[in-house]
Amino acid sequence: MLSEHISPRVRDIPPSGIRAFFELSAGNNDIISLGVGEPDFATPEHVRAACIGALNRGETRYTPNAGLPELREEIAVYLHNSFNLYYEPADEVIVTVGSSEALDLALRAFIASGDEVIIPSPSYIAYSPMAHLNGGVIVEVEAAAEQGFKLTAEALQKVITPRSKLLMVNFPNNPTGAVMTYEDWLPIADIAKAHNLIVISDEIYAELTYNGKHTSIASLPGMKERTIVISGFSKAFAMTGWRVGYACGNRELLAAMLKIHQYTAMCAPVLGQIAAIESLRNGLPDKDVMKECFDQRRGLLIAGLRSIGLPCHEPHGAFYAFPSIAHTGLNSERFALQLLHEAGVAAVPGHVFGAGGEGYIRVSYAASIQKLTEALERMEGFMKVKM
Ligand code: PMP
């Protein structure tokens, strides 16, 4: 049997729980999907026009492995102005195929077989499979509702061992919407330094921070050298399909990631990179307009969920609400399936984000006010029957 040739590591990992769930609703137009984590906006017109211009000029070749120098320059300026992070464009920034590739590069570059990778639970669905594929041993650290879905020093300290090597963090968080302040990060940074951890900080939702400003753990004293900041254009700039992300950090660590990138992706798509330059040079106001829309929807959705009897922590970032469904007596899979079949609303069962996600569902508000209103009406009817 040829299937026996499939690598055990690949065989071990399940297909994406989100995708599997959405196949159930595919092709049914009556279903309102609040499932997938993708802005409902098209990329702004001037960004598309910049790409069309480049295409018409025949700019269709490979770029330097680390990305177009102009883009690396713009990324460095942007991170400095927005988040107080300073990186040298020449060797502290790599442009990647979405932030997804940057995450994979970091895990591949640093994990030696048996190294422990600490991953908060709940967390973004791809971290554990990516860490497993790269030979890491996954250690979950609780980021529970009682602690506002934040990472705490107490919880982190409990899971540290001599094999701990990497800590993955993602704030603003998918799926909970939690954010971390400078004060929240201080004790985490101390632990990372004390135990010589590399921190992989996925800051793809940094721009979508609604109350106050995003703080990167890399901006804390002594943290730049041991943190790989990963981000990209998919979410705040509405550019999911262009596949452009980046990694920034310590030049020695980045050089290791760049080696893998050179042999695998070679470079991120040139047209995506050209569009990303336009987004950073002239598209910052567009991003602010989209953020304002997300914020309005956030208010509507959170108030709506609470009023129909679904307690919900206030998400301060990203575009997800993570209401508790435990009091219905259903587990998250059954709740989400019944909501889909009986009310025609697709949300993601929390367990797909790790053990810490059981008892919750993830509801995306990257959908129009009209859709959210209709979904809330349907959910209200559903909850009346269940409770
Ligand atoms: N990190 C998080 C937390 C995400 O939610 C996503 C997309 N769902 C990604 C990374 C990947 O984004 P991309 O590869 O499009 O940059």
Automatic annotation (TrEMBL):
InterPro entries per the UniProt record, alphabetical: Aminotransferase_I/II_large, AspAT/PAT-like, NHTrfase_class1_PyrdxlP-BS, PyrdxlP-dep_Trfase, PyrdxlP-dep_Trfase_major, PyrdxlP-dep_Trfase_small
Gene3D superfamilies: Aspartate Aminotransferase, domain 1 (3.90.1150.10), Type I PLP-dependent aspartate aminotransferase-like (Major domain) (3.40.640.10)
Cofactor(s) of this protein: pyridoxal 5'-phosphate
Record GO biological process: amino acid metabolic process
Protein keywords: Aminotransferase, Pyridoxal phosphate, Transferase
Enzyme class at the top of the EC tree: transferase
Keyword flag Lipid metabolism: no
CDD domains registered for this protein in UniProt: AAT_like (cd00609)
Cytoplasm in keyword set: no
EC number annotated for this UniProt entry: 2.6.1.-
Protein family: Belongs to the class-I pyridoxal-phosphate-dependent aminotransferase family.
Name assigned to this protein: Aminotransferase
Organismal lineage: Bacteria, Bacillati, Bacillota, Bacilli, Bacillales
